[in-house]
């Protein structure tokens, strides 16, 4: 069997049924696995998964807490790995090179996180722009959920991009136009937003804000990198 990412042969004595099972359990070879740095709950912010000494809420989230529009939109974000060079390459492969199968590398971890959610939480991918969708042919955040075999709902869509991109340049991350809109009203459902990266947290909070306005209950998010 081969590593889902680098295709190196993984040497292990196993039966065929083990192999099938193992493939789901552990898609990476030893080298890829050791190159990825898992974010541990003990050393990360309880709200955004950002690295910090000890536990609690990081300075960045405390600032978000003061924001008049976004202070209570996001229950919590969980990110799986630190955004290092290897993860950057992995994300690039499925996001920009269209290597859909690489999205399957994260299947096991995504399923583990989804199992921890409150019952009947709806999984919602953060939509990519129409323009990017056309060049890549698929939504990479959907690919993560598809490859994990999870059901999801596309409750968000993007407004016309050109306007919001131009405005983004003029405004700081805490203001600017929200690029998302909800496609339907909600009735207190809890939501898990799925995205590839948590960078400043602005995208996730904007998406969460729109879902809250549409009537969502608690909004959490899950990203591969942080
Ligand atoms: Zn590998
Ligand atoms: Zn934080």
UniProtKB/TrEMBL annotation:
Any Pfam family matching the protein: Pribosyltran
InterPro entries: ComF/GntX_DNA_util-trans (IPR051910), PRTase-like (IPR029057), PRTase_dom (IPR000836)
SUPFAM superfamilies registered for this protein in UniProt: PRTase-like
Domain Phosphoribosyltransferase: 172-223
Similarity comment: family membership: Belongs to the ComF/GntX family.
Name of the protein described by the UniProt record: ComF family protein
Organism of origin: Jeotgalibacillus salarius
């Amino acid at each position: 069997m081969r590593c889902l990412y680098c295709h190196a042969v993984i040497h292990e004595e196993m039966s065929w049924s083990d192999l099938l099972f193992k493939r789901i359990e552990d898609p990476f070879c030893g080298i890829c696995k050791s190159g990825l740095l898992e974010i541990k709950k003990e050393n990360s912010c309880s709200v955004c998964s950002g690295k910090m000494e000890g536990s609690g809420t990081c300075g960045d989230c405390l600032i978000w807490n003061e924001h008049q529009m976004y202070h209570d939109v996001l229950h919590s974000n969980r990110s799986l790995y630190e955004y290092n060079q290897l993860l950057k390459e992995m994300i690039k492969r499925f996001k920009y090179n269209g290597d859909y199968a690489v999205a399957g590398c994260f299947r096991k971890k995504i399923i583990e996180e989804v199992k921890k959610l409150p019952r009947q939480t709806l999984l919602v991918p953060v939509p990519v722009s129409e323009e990017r969708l056309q060049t890549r042919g698929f939504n990479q955040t959907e690919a993560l959920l598809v490859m994990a075999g999870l059901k999801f709902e596309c409750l968000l869509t993007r407004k016309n991009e050109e306007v919001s991109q131009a405005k983004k340049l003029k405004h700081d991350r805490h203001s600017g136009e929200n690029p998302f809109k909800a496609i339907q009203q909600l009735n207190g459902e809890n939501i898990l937003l799925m995205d590839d990266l948590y960078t400043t947290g602005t995208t996730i909070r904007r998406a969460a804000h729109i879902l809250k306005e549409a009537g969502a209950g608690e909004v959490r998010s899950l990203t591969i990198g942080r």
